[in-house]
Amino acid sequence: MILPPTPENLAKAAMFLRRGGLVVMPTETVYGLAADATNPEAIHRVYMAKGRPSDNPLIVHIAYWDQLETVAGRLSAVAKRLSEAFWPGPLTLVLPKHPGLPPGVTAGLDTVAVRMPSHRVALSLIEEVDRPLAAPSANRFMGLSPTRAEHVDPLLAEIILDGGPCQVGLESTVVDCTGDQPLLLRPGGITRGELEAGAGVSIGHAATAGRRRSPGLYARHYAPRARVELVDLLEPGMPGLSFEESGEKVIKMPEDPRAYGAALYDALWRLDEAEVGVIYVERPPDTPDWEAVRDRLTKASHPASDER
Ligand code: TXA
Ligand code: MG
């Protein structure tokens, strides 16, 4: 059931979470399927509801700094600088795991992904539960992440808190801070340039570092039901995303990468609703500002038959 985030509904959702239930909560990036991160049964329910492989760890969401000590071990100097510069906000840090956190949250790894979201409703909910909340994106495995309450499959959770459209619209940037050099595991709401300016260090590429890759990286991901094909220019009659014009089943996308990111999943969702078989997407520029959008489009357009 989609509910407005009134104090009564937040209290109801918090009670549900404390009893091990699942609640869909808005964040500034995408909607998340939240569970009490300290409850192993609740965590198990998240994997089941999403159809998510059990080797793909979850992100733990906190609302205040003291909570960090209950989920992660000591922070490196770089992790400290990054968290201070970008929290609350769309940045997830991979940190040493606190031994008290159940192993299911991190898929058995000794590292944990943590973020402090900036969405008012997410923060209020975490405060009300007074426990860290594990929350993957509120979609079935491999599918599109929801950026509006009405995109969420109502079968995922009994309570869906409506926080309006997500302002960032792409998942958080994930940075592994457990090694000598921080590594970008997933581009997202915060760009590499912003990270480097904020932390005063260069951020490595996970793809070239080999060893420390994110277990949850698949070649195909973030995909609508329709097949996605990248093209240089939309021809007349092709349904899809254009920089130039709108029309029947053609959505005109913003030329600014941030605005494009915020609009992308909603646009793909709408074309899915229109039941187009193929969504043609005009290739965005090959510049650093577009890294996150290009990442999602590359994965969304990866053929379904070759999944890893
Ligand atoms: O914006 C977001 O991050 C959203 C909202 C709800 O906060 N959440 C989200 O969660 O995108 P999810 O589960 O869809 O993506 C989590 C990503 C995966 O790529 C996963 O592999 C990575 O974080 N991850 C989690 N724990 C990790 C760890 N210990 N080491 C490396 N990568 C990790
Ligand atoms: Mg996801």
Question: Can you tell me about this structure?
Answer:
- With 308 residues, the protein is an alpha/beta fold.
- It is 29% helix and 18% strand.
- It has nine helices and 15 strands.
- The strands form two sheets. It has an eleven-stranded mixed sheet, sandwiched between helices. The protein has a four-stranded parallel sheet with strand order 12-15-13-14, with helices on one face.
- Strand 2 and strand 3 (32-36) form a beta hairpin.
- The protein is globular and about 55 Å long.
- It starts with a strand and ends in an 8-residue tail after the last helix.
- It binds threonylcarbamoyladenylate (TXA) and magnesium ion.
Give a short summary of the structure.
The protein is of the alpha/beta class and 308 residues long.
User: Helical region count?
Assistant: 9
How far apart are the termini? 34 Å
Shape label? globular
What can be said about the biggest beta sheet? 11 strands, mixed
Bound molecules: threonylcarbamoyladenylate, magnesium ion
Low-confidence segments: none
Can you give the mean pLDDT? 93
The rounded Rg comes to: 19 Å
Briefly note the structural class of the backbone: alpha/beta
Report the helical percentage. 25-40%
| Helix/strand order | EHEEHEHHEEHEEEEHEHEEEHEH
How many beta strands in the DSSP annotation?
A: 15
The fraction of residues in strands falls at 15-25%
Major sheet strand order? 1-8-2-3-7-4-6-5-9-10-11
